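For anyone still unconvinced, we reproduce a single protein record, the chain in one-letter code, the fold tokenised, and leave readers to judge:
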Amino acid sequence: MLVVNRFRGDDALRADLETAHAALADRPGYLDGTLGRNVDDPGLWVLVTRWQDVGSYRRALSSYEVKLTAVPVLSRAIDEPSGYELVGESELNTAVPRDTDAR
């Protein structure tokens, strides 16, 4: 599962997005993610995360730490659909789950 959240904001938004991303990255089922800024419109930001499945993402959103640190930031996202199902069998869409035994 791919989650794409876009935001409008200034440089101060970056720290909030990094904090939100760190909280999400610590949850079981998280595969990877990145933060980006639009090259033509520096006020447009994106947080992209990949998850093992939709259930992992939904469980992450309901965890206490994510509710405390990430959900307030995610609620500021541009109002548009953000969850995507990966399609195709290419190697680009094949994810190796992170080791979750250490949690």
In short: The chain has four helices and four strands. Residues 2-78 form a domain with the Alpha-Beta Plaits fold (CATH 3.30.70.100). The helical segments are 11-25, 54-62, 64-69, 71-74.
